[in-house]
Amino acid sequence: MSFFPVCRPRRLRKTQAVRNQVAETVLRTEDLMYPVFVVHGENIKKEINGMPGQYHYSLDRLPELINEIEKAGILSIMLFGIPAKKDRYASENYTDNGIVQKAIRLIKTLSPALVIATDVCLCAYTEDGHCGITHNGQIDNDQTLDILQKTAVSHAQSGADIVAPSGMMDGMIQAMRQGLDQNDFSDVMIMSYAVKYASAFYGPFRGACGSEPTGDRKSYQMDYRNKKEARKEARMDQEEGADFLMVKPALSYLDIIQDVVEHSTLPVAAYHVSGEYAMIKAAAGNGWVDEKAIVIESLTSIKRAGAKIILTYYALDVAQWLAET
Ligand code: PBG
Fold this sequence. Notes:
By secondary structure, this protein is an alpha/beta fold. The protein has helices spanning 16-22, 62-72, 99-110, 141-158, 172-182, 203-209, 228-240, 254-263, 274-285, 291-304, 315-324; strands at 32-39, 45-48, 51-58, 76-82, 115-120, 134-135, 138-139, 162-165, 189-196, 244-248, 268-272, 309-312.
């Protein structure tokens, strides 16, 4: 061979030690936020259809999980509640005895340092499964804002550290920030599901919450053919006072994550959603892929795209895998 390569990138790949030292992106347990589902009732730990290994917990069974989360070194959770009854105005969302409110108070006694974020949305609480109040088949954006505001304040009163509106209503951050500030909760953070696409990847989650909408969510969640719009949504929520921005789903939207990270000054979270989880579980269950390897690779790519926080149902497994290596 006559030609001699001057540049030999393979030198830096030769040993694990060197690879570890030059790695640009390293996934850590601290990067993860774990979604937790709470339900009314007693002695319930019920596996969620389509999400093997994920459960609905009643409050009396929740301590086992919180203990596991704490031991794993996971710093934060995202709380989802399934209400006792659904109604037109999503009223369990903002009552002191709502399932989320009770869960927050309990978790704060069990693990005071665990950061609690709460999903603030109407879809699990409304009869038609929409993320807003509907009138004659149309979403009433501004009436929905009142409910989001009341819910944010109610979650804050119970001790939530972060409230996370996921309904893609215009003005939701401003409404919630105002409500929080007027009620002396200026230190409660807002994580906006700022860039949330109308996605088929939410299927298993909707089964879990009984929140399949009548029709679809395309009049409020974003069209996946659009990218510029992500920048607009992100900018708007930053201006309205969001503390974190979220992009959702994650793996099919790495370009969006990167774009939002580059064009905003806020930390960006990405949600590796239920359908993404389900696909890996199904393939791994059939022995078609190496679950651990594929999960670590997937989540590392989300971090490489620029996400600071990754919401994932795999959080507990990943914490364990990372501790083993
Ligand atoms: C509520 C909400 C959804 C998810 C998080 N918050 C469902 C939806 O918008 O239909 C999806 C999470 C997942 O799929 O894991 N609006």
